[in-house]
Amino acid sequence: MPTLSSEQLTGKTRTHVLELQEAGCTLQADAARAYRVLQAAAARDGVAVAAASSFRPFEHQLAIWNDKFLGRRALLDRDGRVLDRARMPEAQIVHAILQWSALPGASRHHWGTEIDVFDRNTLPTGKPQLLPAEFAPSGLFSALNQWLEQHAEHFGFFRPYDRDRGGVAPEPWHLSFAPISGQALQALTPEVLAGALSGADLAGDAIVRSQLADIYQRYVLAVAAPSPRALAARALSQ
Fold this sequence. Notes:
The chain is an alpha+beta fold.
C-alpha cells in the first residue's frame, strides 16, 4: 500500500488518485478497485451504490470552509437544522462547521480513500442531501444502510463516523478504505496539518490556530477503528 506524502495527505496535490469516469468518483487505485467490486456485489443484491463525493482537493475544502464561516452556506446543527449564525460567536461557528465539514488539510477526502455513497435505485436523479434521516429504517437509503452494515467490511471499507463521539456528526454514507486510510490517519500529524494551513486564506484563521490541538483530537482522531476483517480485505483490491 502506498505511503502518502504531506501534500497528498492534505489535498495539496492529486498525484495519488485517479478519476473513474464510469463510476463518477476519484480514488486511489487500490481503493478504486475495491469500490468497483463492492458496487458489483451490491448491484447483484438490488442496491445501486453511487458516489456523491470522493477525493476533494485542499482548495475545494477551503472554499467550503470559507463559505460556511462567512455565511455563504448554511450552518447545521447535529440534527440537520439550520443554525442562526448571527447569534453565534466565531469560536462557536468554527465548531458548528466542523460537525459536518472538515478543516482544510484535515479532510479524509484528501486521501483518495473516502467516498460518500447513496443508492441510485431509490434516488434515480440528482444527489442526496446526505443526512442521517435518509439512512434511518424508514429513510430513503435504508436498504443501502443495511447492505453496508452487512457487507462493506468484506471489501475493505468501514464507516469512520458511525456514531457520535462528540466531534464529527454521524455520517452513515461515508465509507473509508481501511487498508490505506489507517496509515494516512497516523501520518496526518498536527504538524503536517499546521504546515498545510500556513499561508492559506482561511476564514477564522486565528481561532482555528488557537484551537488546533483540540480540533485535531475531536475532529480528526475521534473516529471508529476499522475491523480486522476490513483491514484484511486488501487482497480484493489487487
